């Protein structure tokens, strides 16, 4: 063995130190790079078998550059990321809902409802006072506005989720595409060339992490180093490509009758719907289909109960014009999004029924003896059959001829009704003949008008706020009033939000712990790198010194030769 | 071996802790800014729903308070009216005693009668007392006065022969109802509902005829009796016109009950009806007493005056009963009002406990959290600065 060998030992030493310094430099440079795992140089001493001395050192060799990372921890983190993404979306929805409901406050729906009920109390005190009537009407309008505004805001919020859903779907496609590309690069380097693709793996892990917060990911690494990803049981990234997802619109009818499109997810190729198990995508879809719709349903139940209860009571009372059977709200519009005052009340607050009546009795079928009266005396007096057939409910009279023709009420039409007296005056003998058999359908009030100063019905309406009419228990009785139902709804929102928030906090701190743990393994410690730098600098210096020494020895040898 | 601490780990930990501290401080800050512990339902779900219930209750107490105040005003009006009524009845009674004295001449009785007539008008005015534009004694028909003075005329067909058996003509010597005799009323045209009864003595006149000799009047029922055929025939065949003032009790139902809700599910009556205060439609009401007194004094009929004394006594008694019933209702409202205001105070306090921030605590919490936040900022700045690099 000659001096040239010695020189090559020095060379190898210099090379190894330089590589190590390079890796240290790379580590320091990437101390803040997202997803970067620290690298470590693996050194190994080289030796040959010497005939005389046995194994003899030939210096050092860099065997490989290791990537230090806990893969198992990564997988756990990805799973937690999915849950966190899901809960984050729900939390956003709950917070937004809380902001929309704005309870408890002076501006919320609850206070508008309270004002509505209170206005009926005031009307009961002064039933003949037109300003008390106007106050009821205006407080009802304010309450309706509040119902509609809350409902519409929730509905709009649900529709606004189309955008983030579309955005998230695009990101999923982007990420799975990139992961597939990196898979190819890694397989190319590792399986074909036998090289370690450390930094590409770092990049890929980072992308998978990003994907895992959007949808749930299950990963398997194949023999070529490719990562196979499935989500919700569907293959997302395979050995030969990534599956693309797309959004498609589903038509939905809104409270005001407009149509709107709600986006859903499916695979671009197969058109099969894509339903991830967790992640932000699932969170957005669940927030919309479960959380928002639950509270919209609750608002609808509330609105329906208010409309129906008030109408039932209101129809029993008498307006200031002695008319009974007038609805207060439009009976056709029973959702929070479209509730409205009845036409009669819109026309005049005189049509608010403050005065007490009895019960409204429905006479579904009544055939007066003699049928249609003669033209000379065209008045059919229902009272002659039954003295109670008077005080007919507003608009409840329906006259049908035996052939099924329904006659029209009105001064220019077939007949007019005097509701108070229970008489029907026939006008249009061109359409029928005296004596024709008819069927009359009507509703009457069992109690007569008791005067403008009677506010008993207003008092009964005001009392509805505490009447249990919602949430039936198994025995069929109701357990909640409109007031308690709504405060329970708001309370439930708070509880659900807090439950979700505490789940979210748990997941967040779990991820943070796992990140810390991962950082302990794979993060760059500047102190450590500095120490390494000094260490390798010194060994570089020493190797150089060694080469100088060997070179001096060679000089000595050369002088001998001359 | 000590565990490795990497740079990224330190910075993310520092950030996490700073955020956590800031969050806490921000929450307390919001409480201080709004003065409310509960700014959204999630701050305290149970508290939030409790607070909403309490708000609703408070609103109700407000309503009850308004109802009670309104009712007290209503009943106060009634009380002062009935009180004036008591004084009037007592004055009337004095006049009756004075007039019943046999030493009175017809003239002096007549002057007393003039005085009583003034009281009668005053009583009619009292019966038409209003509160906020509503007639308090009209039951629930508060837009109509319970009693009204009307002037009317009845045109009585006499004709010859006056005692003909023809039913269209008036028979002599039998009572006829004025209401059947083609009534013209001062207010109702056509006077379909005019039913003159309770005719005020002193206002009835048939021109050319004299009361007592030519005809007799039942002032209570509004009936007339022509006494002599000569009286009628003297005027020739034709019509007799009787003119008079009468007190009309409104035909509508004046007995409606007006209630106020003064507590949850508790309604209490506030109104006193015309029947309570002045008696029913017919028979022995306050007006009958006054009419007897008027007739007795104006037409010098001592027996009427004497019988009116008992009637005035019973009218006074009715009035006092109405007044004490009303007083009992006032007491009920008063005691409910004080209970209501107690509950209001108590509930307000409860709501404040649930909803409002304890400022002393919140301020001290805030100061503590601020100190912690600042300390963590300072320490983080120092911790992040140091590494081996600084010393090489």
Structure description:
The complex is a heterodimer of chains A (562) and B (392). Chain A has 562 residues and is an alpha+beta fold. Among the domains of chain A are: 93 residues, no CATH class; 124 residues, no CATH class; 86 residues, no CATH class. Chain A contains eleven helices and 16 strands. In chain A, the strands form six sheets. Chain A has a four-stranded antiparallel sheet with strand order 3-4-5-6, covered by helices on one side. In chain A, helix 2 packs parallel to helix 7, helix 2 runs antiparallel to helix 10 and helix 5 runs antiparallel to helix 6. The relative contact order of chain A is 0.13. The model of chain A has no long low-confidence stretch (mean pLDDT 91). In chain B, the strands form four sheets. Chain B has a four-stranded antiparallel sheet with strand order 5-3-9-6, with no helix packed on it. Chain B is an alpha+beta fold and 392 residues long. In chain B, 54% of the residues lie in helices and 13% in strands. The chains are: A alpha+beta (562), B alpha+beta (392).
Biggest sheet layout of chain A? 4 strands, antiparallel
Largest interface: A-B, 67 and 60 residues
**Structural class by secondary-structure content of chain A:** alpha+beta
- Share of β-strand residues of chain B: 5-15%
Based on DSSP secondary structure assignment, what is the total number of beta strands of chain A? 16
Q: Helix share of residues of chain A?
A: 40-55%
Our Rg estimate of chain A from Cα atoms comes to 42 Å
Residue ranges of chain B: pLDDT <50 for 5 or more in a row?
A: 160-166
Ends apart, CA distance between termini of chain A = 22 Å
Order of helices and strands of chain B: HHHEEEEEEEEHEEEHHHH
Order of helices and strands of chain A: HEEHHHHHEEEEEEHHEEEEEEHEEHH
Q: How many alpha or pi helices of chain A? A: 11
Overall pLDDT score of chain B:
86
Inertia-based shape of chain B: rod-shaped
Structural class of chain B: alpha+beta
Rounded to the nearest angstrom, the radius of gyration of chain B is 41 Å
Strand order of the largest sheet of chain A: 3-4-5-6
Mean pLDDT of chain A: 91
Subunit organisation of the chains: heterodimer
């Amino acid at each position: 063995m000659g001096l040239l060998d010695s020189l090559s030992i020095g060379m190898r030493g210099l090379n190894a130190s330089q590589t190590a310094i390079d890796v240290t430099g790379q580590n320091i440079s990437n101390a803040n790079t997202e997803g970067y795992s620290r690298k470590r140089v693996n050194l190994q001493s080289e030796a040959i078998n010497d005939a005389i001395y046995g194994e003899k050192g030939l210096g050092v060799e860099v065997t490989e550059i290791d990537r230090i990372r806990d893969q198992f921890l990564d997988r756990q983190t990805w799973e937690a990321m999915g849950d966190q993404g899901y809960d984050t979306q729900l939390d956003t929805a709950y917070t937004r809902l809380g902001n929309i409901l704005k309870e408890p406050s002076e501006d919320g729906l609850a206070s508008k409802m309270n004002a509505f009920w209170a206005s009926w109390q005031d009307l009961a005190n002064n039933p003949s006072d037109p300003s008390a009537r106007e106050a009821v009407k205006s407080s009802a309008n304010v309450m309706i506005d509040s119902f509609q505004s809350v409902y519409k805001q929730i509905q709009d919020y649900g529709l606004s989720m189309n955008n983030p859903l579309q955005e998230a779907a695009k990101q999923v496609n982007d990420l799975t595409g990139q992961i597939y590309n990196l898979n190819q690069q890694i397989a190319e380097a590792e399986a074909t060339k036998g090289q370690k693709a450390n930094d590409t793996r770092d990049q890929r892990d980072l992308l998978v992490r990003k994907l895992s917060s959007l949808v749930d990911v299950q990963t398997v690494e194949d023999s070529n180093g490719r990562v196979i990803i499935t989500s919700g049981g569907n293959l997302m990234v395979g050995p030969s490509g990534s599956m693309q997802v797309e959004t498609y619109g589903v038509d939905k009818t809104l409270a005001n009758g407009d149509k709107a499109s709600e986006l859903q997810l499916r695979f671009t190729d197969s058109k099969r719907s894509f339903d991830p198990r967790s992640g932000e995508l699932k969170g957005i879809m669940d927030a919309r289909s479960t959380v928002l719709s639950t509270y919209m349903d609750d608002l609808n139940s509330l609105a329906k109960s208010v409309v129906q209860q008030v109408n039932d009571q209101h129809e029993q009372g008498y307006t200031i014009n002695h008319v009974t059977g007038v609805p207060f709200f439009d009976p056709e519009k029973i959702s929070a999004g479209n509730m409205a005052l009845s036409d009669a009340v819109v026309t005049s607050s005189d049509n608010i029924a403050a005065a007490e009546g009895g019960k409204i009795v429905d006479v579904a079928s009544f055939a007066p003896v003699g049928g249609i009266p003669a033209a000379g005396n065209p008045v059919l007096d229902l009272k002659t059959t039954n003295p109670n057939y008077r005080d007919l409910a507003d608009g409840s009279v329906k006259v049908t001829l035996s052939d099924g023709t329904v006659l029209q009420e009105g001064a220019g039409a077939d007949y007019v009704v005097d509701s108070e007296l229970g008489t029907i005056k026939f006008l249009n003998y061109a359409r029928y003949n005296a004596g024709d058999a008819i069927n009359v359908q009507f509703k009457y009030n069992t109690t007569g008008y008791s005067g403008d100063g009677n506010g008993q019905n207003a008092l009964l309406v005001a009392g509805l706020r505490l009447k249990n009419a919602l949430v039936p228990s198994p025995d069929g009785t109701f357990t909640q009033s409109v007031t308690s139902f709504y405060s329970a709804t708001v309370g439930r929102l708070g509880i659900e939000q807090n439950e979700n928030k505490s789940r979210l906090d748990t997941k967040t701190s779990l991820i943070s712990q796992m990140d810390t743990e991962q950082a302990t393994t794979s993060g760059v410690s500047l102190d450590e790198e500095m120490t390494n730098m000094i260490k390798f600098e010194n060994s570089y210096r020493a190797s150089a010194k060694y080469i100088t020494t060997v070179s001096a020895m060679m000089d000595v040898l050369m002088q001998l030769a001359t | 071996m000590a565990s490795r601490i990497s740079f990224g780990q330190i910075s993310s930990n520092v950030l996490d802790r700073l955020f956590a501290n800031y969050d806490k401080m921000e929450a307390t800050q919001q409480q201080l800014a709004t003065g409310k512990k509960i700014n959204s339902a999630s701050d305290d779900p149970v508290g939030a729903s409790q607070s909403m219930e309490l708000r609703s209750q408070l609103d109700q107490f407000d309503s009850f308070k308004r109802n009670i105040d309104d009712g007290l005003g209503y009943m106060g009006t009634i009380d002062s009216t009935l009180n004036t009524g008591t004084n009037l009845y007592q004055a009337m009674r004095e006049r009756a005693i004075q007039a019943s004295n046999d030493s009175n001449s017809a003239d002096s009785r007549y002057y007393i009668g003039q005085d009583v007539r003034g009281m009668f008008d005053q009583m009619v005015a009292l019966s038409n007392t209003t509160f906020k534009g509503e007639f308090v004694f009209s039951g629930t028909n508060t837009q109509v006065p319970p009693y009204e003075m009307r002037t009317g005329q009845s045109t009585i067909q006499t004709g010859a022969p006056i005692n003909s058996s023809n039913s269209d003509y008036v028979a002599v010597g039998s009572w006829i109802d004025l209401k059947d005799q083609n009534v013209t009323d001062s207010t109702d045209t056509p006077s379909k509902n005019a039913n003159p009864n309770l005719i005020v003595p002193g206002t009835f006149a048939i021109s050319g005829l004299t009361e007592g000799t030519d005809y007799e009047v039942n002032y209570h029922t509004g009936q007339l009796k022509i006494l002599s055929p000569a009286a009628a025939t003297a005027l020739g065949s034709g019509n007799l016109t009787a003119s008079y003032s009468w007190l009309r009790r409104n035909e509508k139902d004046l007995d409606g009950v007006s209630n106020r809700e003064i507590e949850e599910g508790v309604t209490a009556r506030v109104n006193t009806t015309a029947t309570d205060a002045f008696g029913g439609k017919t028979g022995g009401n306050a007006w009958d007493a006054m009419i007897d007194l008027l007739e007795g004094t104006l037409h010098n009929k001592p027996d009427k005056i004497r019988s009116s004394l008992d009637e005035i006594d019973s009218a006074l008694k009715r009035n006092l009963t109405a007044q004490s019933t009303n007083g009992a209702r006032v007491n009920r409202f008063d005691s409910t009002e004080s209970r209501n205001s107690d509950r209001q105070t108590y509930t307000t306090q409860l709501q404040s406990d649930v909803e409002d921030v304890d400022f002393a605590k919140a301020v001290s919490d805030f100061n503590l959290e601020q100190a912690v936040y600042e300390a963590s900022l300072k320490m983080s700045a120092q911790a992040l600065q140091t590494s081996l690099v600084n010393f090489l």
